[in-house]
Design goal:
Largest sheet: none
Low-confidence stretches: none
Membrane topology: Multi-pass membrane protein
Strand content: under 5%
Shape: elongated
Structural class: mainly alpha
Order of helices and strands: HHHHHH
Number of domains: 1
Transmembrane segments: 27-44, 51-71, 91-116
Radius of gyration: 17 Å
Number of strands: 0
GO cellular component, one term: EMC complex
Helix content: over 70%
Keywords: Endoplasmic reticulum, Membrane, Transmembrane, Transmembrane helix
InterPro entries: Emc6, EMC6-like
Number of helices: 6
Length: 118
């Protein structure tokens, strides 16, 4: 939790946190659809398709963190794993997109699986 002095020097703006959350959610939803297309074209079935989604969703979060969050955290002198400054919490950042993009993943996965295998 930031101290009052830190909040006075660089306040956390609620609108910015909401914007960051919306941007991350849009990225994860789009990525989930692309992963569904990939899984369908590869012909993945059952657990292998869901593992594919889980691995690549977490990889997307890691890449987003490495390219966007970590450099700004380090430049501000914050610990590298502190996402609370930019998002509502660590769960929202690391795992929030898993359930948000699951429906889009399954939809595009079955669509492209059916198109390729038909």
């Amino acid at each position: 939790m930031p101290s009052e002095r830190e909040l006075q020097i660089s306040p956390i703006v609620h609108e910015s946190v909401v914007h960051n959350s919306r941007t991350l959610s849009n990225l994860q939803t789009l990525a989930a659809s692309l992963f569904g297309v990939s899984a369908g074209i590869l012909g993945l079935e059952s657990y292998s398709g869901f593992v594919f989604y889980l691995v690549f969703s977490l990889l997307t979060a890691v890449l987003f963190y490495a390219l966007r969050v970590a450099p700004t955290s380090l430049a501000a002198g914050k610990p590298p794993l502190d996402t609370s400054r930019y998002f509502r919490g660590p769960y929202e950042f690391w795992a929030g997109g898993l359930m948000n993009g699951l429906a889009g993943f399954i939809l595009t996965w079955t669509l492209f699986y059916g198109l390729v295998r038909a």
